[in-house]
Specification:
heterodimer; A: Methylamine Dehydrogenase, Chain H; 4-stranded antiparallel sheet; 1 helix; 46% strand; B: 9 strands; globular; Protein yippee-like (chain B); Yippee_fam (chain B); zinc (chain B); metal ion binding (chain B)
Chain lengths: 321, 132
């Protein structure tokens, strides 16, 4: 029965390259599908982000190139309603963009507030961002540039990554001192989870119940948002030591995890097993980030230092009959 | 060269002389009396933002050690070596610790050694001679 289940699920797992996107002129550091699955955004060391449109036949085509950053664009966040994007320059500023027109109206941050990460709240009108300056902490802003709330405290550690659960109930922050802080937005109650190794990135599940972190000890840990687990689920087999590598939930029933890797491959795990079930080859160098299409469980995108984005789908040759 | 994940230190920091990546803290110095063929060096209990090379056996002034060169994660230059195994009992305290050569770093005790060839990366092999 298990083998049969695995075999069935394998037909739904992306294992082959279906398209190679070559719009960027330098390393591609980030990639993420929109919540409705109709767009993909990518961002690069060429200081641009690109919005790609997912067509009916599953192919992607370039819709907008977003220019304006002076540094590598290291992070992008889709608003929950998919009408806006936030692009984060690498230790630089934050820019909100209109997805339909590809235009930017404001720039947030300056020399006094160097943004390291950002996340939207469910209303698609407010967002939080973390700073790499320990004096600044985490701030909540609206799209007009007004600071709504701050969690500055006394000498907060530098913020590495930030996320808001899709239900809007929790703000999860990753700090340079290897701590994960889960803040309940309503009650301001806070839980702290300590890791033993530096944490490079954070990703929350679509049902708001779990999150995963990439560690530079070459492990991915899954924790529950409610904070009841004593120990994380661990996933390993990939290589990560020097770079920021990102992973994500996805696939059928969101029961899979995919991650980039420093050895040019994409790794896929079933959440029930700490060893990968698929290792995808094709990129020629480090894969920095992966994203699973939330509406098409068989579609995965990966961003690489080889300047390309690969779109992956099931291998047709493996289907029987 | 993807997006490096670099650990930032606070306090009295030793940084790479070439690219200013943080490498170690003053408080983690175990000894300042180490030497390499390029001059004086520090022994640190802990270093960050380095990659480790291959293990190799090296005859040091204090005996045979298994060491690995360490390289700055930011610019790739060699900055010292890490002791993996000390073969003599009296040297066991070094295991897991790292030597960083003074001329490779800028730091709180203001080393101004400009007499060394910064471009000379032909590192045949370090050696040490600590307190006798």
């Amino acid at each position: 029965m298990r083998n049969e289940d695995h075999h069935c699920s394998r037909d739904q797992i992306p294992t082959s390259t279906t398209q190679i996107l070559t719009g960027h002129k330098n390393e591609v550091w980030f990639v993420q599908f929109s919540n409705n699955g109709e767009y993909l955004v990518s961002s690069s060391n060429d200081c641009t982000a690109i919005i790609w449109k997912v067509l009916e036949d599953g192919k992607l085509t370039l819709k907008h190139t977003l220019c304006g950053h002076q540094h590598a664009v290291s992070f992008v966040a889709w608003s929950p309603d998919d009408t806006k994007l936030l692009t984060c320059g690498n230790t630089e500023v934050l820019k909100p963009w209109d997805v339909e027109t590809g235009t930017c109206k404001h720039t947030f941050g300056n020399q006094g507030f160097v943004v390291s990460s950002c996340a939207w709240f469910p209303n698609s009108k407010q967002f939080g961002c973390g700073s790499s300056d320990p004096e600044k902490g985490v701030c909540m802003w609206d799209c007009d540039g007004n600071v709504i709330k701050s969690w500055i405290g006394m000498r907060m550690p530098k913020v590495v990554d930030l996320a808001v659960t899709p239900d809007g109930e929790y703000l999860i922050s990753i700090f340079m001192d290897k701590e994960i802080r889960i803040l309940h937005m309503g009650t301001s109650a806070e839980q702290v989870i300590s890791e033993e190794h530096p944490i490079t990135s954070l990703s929350v599940s679509g049902d708001s119940k779990f999150f995963i972190v990439n560690l530079n000890s070459q492990e991915i840990h899954m924790w529950d948002v409610a904070g009841k687990w004593d120990k994380p689920l661990r996933f390993m087999g990939h290589k990560q030591h020097k770079y920021v590598i990102r992973s994500c939930f996805g696939g059928l029933n969101n029961t899979f995890i995919a991650s980039g890797c420093e050895n040019s491959q994409v790794y896929i795990w079933n959440c029930r097993n700490s060893r990968p079930i698929e290792v995808l080859s094709g990129h020629s160098i480090t894969v920095n980030c992966v994203s699973w299409n939330p509406k098409i469980p068989q579609m995965l995108a990966s961003a690489s230092d080889d300047y390309t984005i690969r779109v992956w789908g099931p291998s047709l040759q493996k289907k029987e009959g | 060269m993807g997006r490096l994940f670099v650990t930032h230190l606070e306090g009295q920091i030793y940084t790479c002389k070439h690219c200013r990546t943080h490498l170690a803290l003053y408080e983690d110095i175990v000894s300042k009396a180490f030497h390499s063929r390029h001059g004086r060096a520090y022994l640190f209990s802990k270093v960050v933002n380095v990659t480790t090379g291959e293990n190799e056996d090296r005859q040091m002034a204090t005996g045979m050690h298994t060491v690995a060169d360490i390289f700055c994660v930011g610019c790739g230059s060699i900055v010292g070596w890490k002791y993996e195994t000390a073969h003599e009992k009296s040297q066991k305290y070094k295991e897991g610790k790292s030597v960083i050569e003074r001329y490779k770093v800028s730091g709180p005790d203001g080393n101004n050694n400009n007499n060394y060839w910064v471009g000379n990366e032909a590192h045949v092999g370090g050696s040490d001679a600590d307190d006798a």
